[in-house]
Write a structure and sequence with these properties.
Length: about 150
């Protein structure tokens, strides 16, 4: 139910199925890996091994900044409905904003997200708005800190 206002119908089966991804995180092992020590030597880590901890850490940071938010005093919660609700509060303008950043790494700020316009995963291209490569985009934690608890949020 939380994805319907955001995900274009053509991206889901009969317009009713859930699609992936929700959000994106930097996971390029060649451009910006996390450097970790393995047996005393520095090794670059990327992919899901980097993006998943970044996503979970970002959500944990948002929850720790808003104790008792999202209908519970528990320190954990389900992120997707809150992220999708917040995304709907800042619709992509038409035409979309001009992306900023160095060539190949350009994004466009939309609400608490950086919308990814360029690149692909070999099957789907990135595009303005929700897409099957980066979902809603990457999180802007500074903006998310205030916007994630907008009135009416689930």
């Amino acid at each position: 139910w939380w994805t319907k206002p955001v995900v274009p119908v053509q991206y889901s089966v009969n317009g009713t199925e859930r699609t992936i991804p929700d959000i994106a995180m930097d996971a390029d092992n060649n451009v910006s890996p996390a450097i970790v020590m393995v047996k005393g030597a520095p090794v670059g880590v990327g992919g899901t091994s980097l993006s998943s901890p970044l996503s979970v850490g970002s959500w944990a940071r948002l929850l720790s900044a808003h104790p008792g938010a999202f209908g519970s005093k528990a320190p954990f919660g389900f992120a997707a409905p809150a992220f999708y609700y917040e995304y709907t509060q800042f619709p992509i303008p038409n035409p979309p904003p001009q992306p900023v950043g160095p060539p190949g790494f350009q994004t466009s700020p939309v609400g608490g997200y950086h919308d990814i316009y360029f690149g692909d995963n070999g099957l789907w291209p990135a595009a303005p708005g929700y897409d099957l490569v980066t979902g809603m985009g990457t999180l802007d934690i500074g903006i998310q800190m205030t916007d994630i608890v907008l009135p009416g949020a689930p």
